[in-house]
Specification:
Helix content: 25-40%
Number of helices: 8
Structural class: alpha/beta
Radius of gyration: 19 Å
Number of strands: 12
Strand content: 15-25%
Length: 300
């Protein structure tokens, strides 16, 4: 197994831009002495099915994530290969979820907080009244309390979003919930938001796939600019990061890479999706609202 680590971005980097060499070294020294209040394993776009030994490879990767002494896991969706295609039967969809259930037993001792990706819901159930239809069933299979929800750890507040609405957006009910939730975050506490789809992404410029309500979200984040620090996503299978109005946006690469397969003509190397290798990220969140996102390539 070969690994390469990438510190995609960090608040530390932002604070040292334009600083003198001595200032940068001093900032680095301060950060090296600080301890994160939370260390999180971020996985996304697992696209699990039984082909290509994917469950065994997924479990191996989860075991590696645990070696980083994470406090819990965040999973930003597309957990199963695909339930959204028109030819997916009930049996096939259930088999994909069964493979997921069996695999995550490896991390039974950890909390796993997920959101629903666009490939997770079974839209082609016989009717909308079928209990397995749509986002709500996928949320249930992922152990989510609701299709969107929040929770808190230390002085960090986590908002898990559902962008599986028209045009990739938050529905009005969810937007109102988010507005109230951010308003309630105390002074000196910070917010991380996770959606399957990027809210703001470099790769969105040529690949699309981002939230269509990003302007409304941008304005909401600016209103709470002392609180909102990071937005986390997947979906693109591509690795990127950017900073806008003080908010860091991390789109981490897919654990499945090119859907666990060797790739195609656009793959830079075997298993890559275009130029991004399969992998996962380790996030470190600090008490002062700064953070680090380290992407770790994983080859099998």
């Amino acid at each position: 197994m070969k690994r390469r680590d990438f510190l995609v971005s960090s608040s530390l980097a932002a604070t040292t831009i334009g600083a003198t060499t001595k200032e940068a070294q001093a900032n680095q020294s301060l950060r090296s002495k600080a301890k994160p209040v939370l260390t999180i394993g971020h996985i996304t776009d697992v696209h699990l099915r039984r082909r290509d030994n994917a469950p065994e490879r997924f479990q191996k990767c989860l075991k590696e994530v645990m070696t980083h002494k994470v406090d819990f896991f965040l999973n930003s969706g597309d957990s199963i290969f695909a339930a959204d295609y028109s030819d997916v039967t009930r049996e096939n969809m259930l088999d994909q979820w069964s493979a997921w259930d069996e695999s995550i037993k490896v991390i039974d001792q950890y909390e796993l907080h997920s959101c629903v990706g666009n490939h997770d819901p079974w839209w082609h159930a016989p009717s909308k009244e079928d209990e397995m239809y749509g986002v709500n069933y996928a949320a249930k299979r992922l152990g989510m309390p609701h299709r969107y929800y929040s929770f808190s750890k230390k002085n960090w507040h986590f908002f898990i979003l559902d962008g599986n609405n028209k045009g990739v957006s938050l529905d009005p009910e969810q937007m109102t919930w988010l507005e109230k939730g951010l308003e309630a975050v105390p002074t000196g506490h910070f917010a991380l938001l996770m959606s399957h789809f990027p809210i703001l992404s470099v790769t969105g410029a040529w690949a699309g796939g981002t939230h269509s309500d990003n302007v409304a979200l941008r304005k909401l984040f600016y209103k709470h600019k002392e609180k909102v620090k990071v937005c986390l996503s997947g979906h693109q299978h591509l690795l990127d990061s950017n900073v806008f109005n003080g908010v860091q946006y991390f789109c981490n690469g897919a654990m499945s890479g090119y859907w666990w397969e060797k790739g195609d003509a656009t793959s830079a190397k075997p298993y890559y999706y275009q130029e991004t290798a399969p992998g996962y990220a380790i996030l470190k969140l600090y008490e002062d609202g700064t953070l680090e996102n380290r992407y770790i390539e994983h080859f099998y």
